[in-house]
Amino acid sequence: MKLVYTSVVAVMALFFVPVSPADGLPDLGDVSATVLSPLDEKKIADQIMRSVMASDDVERDPEIQDYVQQLGMRLVAASSDKLLPFQFFVVKDNSINAFAMPGGVVGVHTGLIVAAENESEVAGVLGHEIGHVVQRHLARMMAQQKRDSIISMATIGLALLAARANPQLASGAMMSASAGSLQKQLDYTREHEREADRVGLQIMADAGFDTRGMPAFFEILQRGTRFIDGSAPSFLRTHPLTTERIADVRSRVEQGAYRQVQDSAEFQYVRAKLLANLGPARQAMELFRNNLAQRTYTNEAAQHYGLAIASLRANDLAMAASELVWLKQNASPHAMFASLAANIEVAKQNTAAATGLFQQGLEHYPRSRALIFGYAEHLLRLGQTDAALNLVAQNIDLYPDDPYFYELRSKAYTMQGKRLLRHQAQGEAYVRSYNLPRAIEQMELAAKAGDGDFYQQSIVEARLKQLRLLLNDPKDRG
């Protein structure tokens, strides 16, 4: 499945589902809430996330995922609604974009992180997106238009996110769902954009970021955001990111106190990792070598880390190991270095050394999903299924909504020939991937497997009943 994206800055305020007004902004009472209820928001968000989880265009690297999620939640914690559920994900796309969708779903293109000169610029874009959500812009637009078009909004949201194999279908869906009031929506969008700017700046400031990052990066967006092809509907080409709006944001920033903020190590290393995975591996290696030789960098350790990742991609294990030595001698310890060290030994087929490094890494960074997943995969390659299952069992409660823990269980049980447990685990993975029909299929297979004991059979049958209720009656979802 492929994701098809439009220029987000032109459309991101058309499809937002938010919650409470900030100081000095309109208090809408119950109007927007009655137009689009929390249940409606959840239904739309679940549909979107189902497409996200099934897409090949979504970044699966846990270190990149975790960085964006943690950055996003740091900003959410500084917003006017700290309890609103948000989900952040990363799209493997070199364009400079981010977008918010119904239900607090926020996507970030890898190109945005690479293009940012500092972490506050990324935080500025995310703060703006969060501003759309907490201000309930979608519900407010629907209330103004006095029509309940939840199905249409879900159609638009999904069309923006994924056109499956046919971009023309996305254009058609958006046009049919929106025809008749497009100019009004675009006019209202400009109001939303200014409002999200104001709210986003406050979120940034309260979260401890440099607010200058927002106008600085908006200027990059204005220069760099373009449609990839001509398939998007023409109304989406009206670009609300104007020079006047950027000037307004910059004026607001200059009225505040000056704050210089240091980038986190995670931002620097994630950005370097993304660069290391762009294009041919040897070309990426040359990029980092040149940066180091010419001293064109803001963080030297990040350049050595990027060179190590690119070298590992190129199977130049000697270079990767050499860069790791530099990092150990010159940079503060980090979970991403521990994961890199273990993966180098895996590539060298040094089984015992890799096992020791995974164990050592987890002693220092027990919450690192990269180390947990890497070690579990290593154990499965060695045929040590019981050890892999124990590792998953010890850590699954740290990330109860992560489907990959259950996929690892399913792989281990498949290797052990345990059919009921295999299908049960895969079913739970589908639940966490927002795919209830597939989850029910797997639970039905588990119930018919015939190799479980009475206790296991009872658990599967009870879960199957629960999932069928969830699918047939969304109001019963917990």
UniProtKB/TrEMBL annotation:
Annotated SUPFAM superfamilies: TPR-like
Gene Ontology biological process: proteolysis involved in protein catabolic process
Alphabetized UniProt keyword annotations: Hydrolase, Metal-binding, Metalloprotease, Periplasm, Protease, Signal, Zinc
Domain Peptidase M48: residue ranges: 65-252
A Gene Ontology molecular function term of the record: metal ion binding
CDD domains: M48C_bepA_like (cd07333)
Name recorded for this polypeptide: Peptidase M48 Ste24p
Species of provenance: Methylovorus glucosotrophus (strain SIP3-4)
